[in-house]
Amino acid sequence: MKRWTIYFLRAFLGLLAVLLLAAQVVFFPILSGELAQEYPELAWARWPLLAAVIVLLLGVQVVLGCVWRLLSMVADDTVFTTAAFRYVDMIVRIVALEAFLLAAVNVFLSYGVNANPPALSLGILLLVVAAMLVWLLMLVMRHLLEKATTLREELEQVV
Length: 159
What we know:
The chain is 86% helix and 0% strand.
């Protein structure tokens, strides 16, 4: 992979991390406060839902950090070593947890507070499906990384 590609990807990851942090610190707390004022009968759900959103965004930020580290390994030509498994495994676990947490939020909004309009419910369901697809893709990528690492180790023994 060319250096400029890695720099571009890192810039994009950094920008995305800053935007997610701004959403965690500014956007979602303000939005939840306004929604609590608009719908006082659901104001009690503000803090649990805000905590869930912050945890979800934190999970995405950790995944971005893992991708950043994997990009560093690509730049150093060390991605096909056992050290990369730690980051790929972390991505797999976090994405699975994100899908579960999104599904739990959807169930809570639908049945716990009965305040889940169809568009929001379908949007969250779409996010759950997308997270499951990313999870499955990462499982396949981990298997491919395992095979490539084994082949590289065998090749190094021969050469």
